[in-house]
Amino acid sequence: MNVQSIASHAFAPQPLVNRVLASVLSALMITGAMIATPVYASAETVAKPHHEGTARSTAPPGGFEAVMSFEVGDGPGRLGIAGGEEFETWGPASFAVDEKGRFYVVDGVNGRIVIADPTDGSHTAVAWDAPVVCPVDIQVVSGRIFVLDLPAQPAAVHEISESGTAVATWEVPAEHLEHGVSGIDVRLDRSGKPDIRLEIAGTWHVPLATRGARPARLPAVIDGAVMRVPATAAASVAIERGNAGRAFSAEKDWATGRSANVTALSQGRAVAVMRVDSRSPLGAVRYVDSDRSGNAYVYAEDLVGTGERVRAFVKRYEPDGAPAARFEIPVTDFVAHPMRPIRIAEDGTAYVLVPRADRVSIVRAQWIFDTSEALPASDDEAPATRESLSLREGVDGVFGSIAATVRSVFTPQEAVASWTPLNANDRAWTYVRHAWYCSTRNFATRNGSQRPRYITSANRNYTAVPYCWGGFDTTWSYNSAMSAGHSAGDINCTGTKRSGTAGVDCSGFVSRLWGLGRKYGTWELPNVSRSVSKTAMRLGDAYIWPGRHCMFFRYYTTGGSQLFESTKANSYDRVVTMSRTSAALANYGAYRYRNW
Predict the structure, then answer these.
(1) In terms of Cα–Cα distance, which of 470, 436, 474, 472 is closest to 455?
(2) How many whole angstroms separate alpha carbon 99 and alpha carbon 143?
(3) CA 110, CA 11: separation in Å to the nearest integer?
């Protein structure tokens, strides 16, 4: 069955009542946007470097001490957060702390790194130069700044100066990107040469291959909906931290989903096992870091109910693997989810980056003595739903609840796909791996469009279909549009799709993978799918937050969920594969296409 026959069979013109409903919902959303408090902070040119005065402080979440705090915005003393209709809120992606106790925060929305000194409250903004597009992780070692720049093409690790200039660059192998690179770790040898490791899917680490060397093969096995990595194999590539030179491997008990082991290995032999247990299903479990005393720190998520509510913890273990202390991360305060929200200083102090609607804070955790392997039991509070969570974001959440209620009155629309989830997975890869040439005409903007940020120059090749507001292209139709001289992508998410632009947005991408005959928005995709548990997803399912964003599910790892998505967050601006924790997916529902 071809696409045309699918469309004629399953997508006849909607009844008048549905068209009226769409108009009403559109009017409600416009009204909501007019009266809701925006969280978007536009970027502007930043002088570099310059002193910006003293940062303000605010009351920290319970169980934490305030260290630094910044208002949301784009001016001095601020950090950017961006969000809006049909695209996900994003903000600072990562932060680091150096040996002097200074913080380095990646302010991707404003295109800069903010260096903050808690001793006097001062901070400096440093705008990065090309070839850096937008770092998603940062580490500072002996005063040297290293950033992971996944949005760039090619993706790379850069060492940058405190003026923002790249002084060295290491390209990230494409085969590692396809498993979801989620961070970096850097150590310096005695000569000062950096040993750079890539964190893959929040689960295991591989050395970044030097020029001419073959990248390490990932010892991973896909078992149904799960990506597994045996501990003995992981030990050969896991990162070494702490004075003991140990390697760490995290692995869930996939049979029950309620326990996990983080194994410390020395010379390939297990020397300590740190166990995490939970009464509820576990979400992501990730090894975080070690301190100078050899204590290890583990991030673990507890999925309350069916995963609509997520509690996130950091547990501290002694060198022999015995649990010692814990604290709970205030993830319900987060309006955006950094890739690296936790840092452990050499003395064991734990810092958390907390992006809230009105300000971004760095707080110091207050440890609770706890020798139990189990995460603390949930209180009696009813699990939060996606609708109640969205209410925190203002009037938009109210309209979202109304829209969902009105839509539920109508019978879900039928849909037909002539392929399977495996076929959809193959199609997703064609978007991620799609190679195309950007001419001067494709590089130009038109009709108010904005060029994706990774497209930095004309007359060169790029990979992946770019994000385009309202876009519903296949790779074939995208190629045709490029040949016709259309603009490559459009990240201006206002109004309707602009003529003369090509690419695909988040719901257009999922609509194509599900074999839908027209583009369905995030409000509509639940009408051709059914809700499933977040703990029992399988290839082809989707995470959907109506009115915001959607993603195509690949498989679980110990470190989270591996996904395909077309996204603007962190300046990716294209179709990518990415790893996310359960906390970052708390506002989303899990859906399965009705014909699968």
Answers:
(1) 436
(2) 8
(3) 42
What pLDDT is attached to residue 234?
45
Q: What gap in Å lies between CA 237 and CA 217, rounded to an integer?
A: 9
Which element (helix H / strand E) includes 232?
helix 231-234
CA distance 96 to 343: 7
**Cα separation, 183 vs 435, whole angstroms:** 25
Q: Return d(Cα 76, Cα 70) in angstroms, integer.
A: 9
Cβ proximity of 484 and 387 under 8 Å:
no
Strand-strand pairing, 296-304 and 282-290: antiparallel
Pairing relationship of beta strands 156-160 and 166-171 according to DSSP bridges: antiparallel
3 state SS for 536-582 = CCCCCCEEEECCCEEEEEEEEECCEEEEEEEECHHHCCEEEEEEECC
Q: What percent of the chain has a predicted confidence (pLDDT) above 70?
A: 77
Q: At what angle do helices 16-35 and 395-407 cross, to 10 degrees?
A: 170
Q: Report the range of poorest mean pLDDT among 228-242, 409-423, 446-460.
A: 228-242
Paired tokens of 180: 């979801």
Residue 296 tokens read as 């290890």
Q: Which residues of 547-578 are buried (b: 16+ CB within 10 A; e: fewer)?
A: bbbbbbbbbbbbbbbbbbbbbbbbbbbbbbbb
Report the distance separating Cα 60 and Cα 178, nearest Å: 38
- 452 prior amide bond cis, ω within 30: no
Angle, alpha carbons 215-561-265 (nearest 5°): 55
36 token code pair: 């809701």
Please tell me the least confidently modeled range out of 269-273, 474-478, 547-551.
269-273
What is the Cα–Cα distance from 482 to 488, expressed in whole angstroms? Answer: 7
Phi, psi for 128 (deg, rounded to 5): -85, 155
Rounded to whole angstroms, the Cα distance separating 520 from 591 reads 14
Query: Sign of the CA dihedral 335, 282, 362, 290?
Result: negative
User: Taking a C-beta distance cutoff of 8 angstroms, is the pair 237, 335 a contact?
Assistant: no
* CA 373 – CA 173 distance, rounded (Å): 37
DSSP annotation string for 362-406: EEEE--EE---SBPPPP-SSPPPPHHHHHHTT-HHHHHHHHHHHH
CA pair distance 303, 582, nearest whole angstrom: 8
AA identity, residue 227: M
Rounded CA separation 492/490 (Å): 6
Per-residue pLDDT tens digits for 362-381: 999 999 999 999 999 876 44
Q: What is the CB neighbour count within 10 angstroms for residue 374?
A: 15
DSSP 430: H
Residues of the chain with CATH 2.120.10.30: 50-383
Question: Structure pTM?
Answer: 0.83
Which DSSP state fits 94? Answer: B
**Token pair for residue 404?**
């969902």
Residues paired with residue 208 on neighbouring β-strands, in sequence order: none
Q: Output the six-digit token pair for 572.
A: 């990716």
Angle at CA of residue 514, ends 511 and 517, nearest 5°: 60
What Rg do the C-alpha atoms of the chain give, in angstroms? 23
Phi, psi values for residue 275, rounded to 5°: -100, 140
**Does the pLDDT value for residue 472 go beyond 90?**
yes
Q: What is the assigned CATH class of domain 50-383?
A: mainly beta
Q: Read off the pLDDT of residues 221-237 as tens digits, 9 standing for 90 and up.
A: 666 677 665 554 443 34
* Helices 506-513 and 421-432, packing angle to 10 deg: 140
